Amino acid sequence: MAKRPRKPSHYELMWLVVMFDLPVSSKAEMKRATLFRNSLLELGFSRKQFSVYMRHCDNLESAQNMAQKVRHCLVPNGFVSVVFITDRQYGMTQNFFGEAKEENEAKTLENTKQLFLF
Predict the structure, then answer these.
(1) Cα–Cα distance for residue pair 8/11, rounded to 1 Å
(2) pTM as predicted
């Protein structure tokens, strides 16, 4: 009988949260900030908010390696924080949206209802 691979626990799986504040006073700084954000996307991060990006990692070691890759993308005078969160902790995240966001989502759902019929 083949042995099933062990499923990692919610405490081993990690989320990497990158939060940053980059100078954008000049065109050159704006370009470097854009390059930094694009580098995060190339590394597999997803944008959560304008200066907050997230990425899932298999374990703490791969999360630490990814954090070093983020460090190498840093721009002069930039400030970047990398937060390590277990999958279990991230699973307790609560997202709240204002009324305008809820109305927009309701309209989007109404407009796409036809797609649900097929």
Answers:
(1) 8
(2) 0.77
